[in-house]
Amino acid sequence: MRLVVDASVIAKWVLPEPMSAEARALLDHEVMVPDLAFAEIANLLTMRVIRGEMTASEASRALQIVLSLNPVSFPSRDLVSEALAMAGNLRHPAYDLVYVALARQQGARFVTADKRLVAKIRNLDMPPPWASLVTPLTDFQPGASAPTLS
Questions:
Q1: Which residues fall in the annotated binding site for Mg(2+)?
Q2: How would you write the pLDDT of the chain (150 residues) with one tens digit per residue?
Q3: What span, in angstroms and rounded, lies between the C-alpha atoms of 38 and 35?
Q4: Domain count, the chain
Q5: Domain region containing 94
Q6: Which of 52, 103, 104, 147 could pair with 132 in a Cys bridge, judged by C-beta atoms 3.0 to 4.6 Å apart?
Q7: Does 144 map to a domain?
């Protein structure tokens, strides 16, 4: 199965968080990310260091593990125009919607642990067709096929 994951899921690959085992299980599939994901995970790890939740050495090791997992990476440059259009309609940061744009482009399911993004999409009166690609990590079923967009 082809999956796009965001930094909220990637963090669970290397940090002890709720749903970490479920996030790591996604690595059994074809995992794709926009190149933006690597900057986001580096920022997330930096914030953990600043808050004293991990050392700089631990953060560096976690980043190296993420990079070694080698998810298929796509240039964000090719996704930002679509993400901008989605963001305006959803009133949500465009960088989160770069992942959705990649899922659309690749015919993949987007799996996220970002509860705020999921809630915004689920609360839309008229969800756009791409909304069906968004799957919370808590709801991910490995055998379920990705919906098709008509």
A1: 6, 96
A2: 999 999 999 999 999 999 999 999 999 999 999 999 999 999 999 999 999 999 999 999 999 999 999 999 999 999 999 999 998 888 889 999 999 999 999 999 999 999 999 999 888 888 888 898 999 999 998 755 544 443
A3: 6
A4: 1
A5: 2-139
A6: 147
A7: no
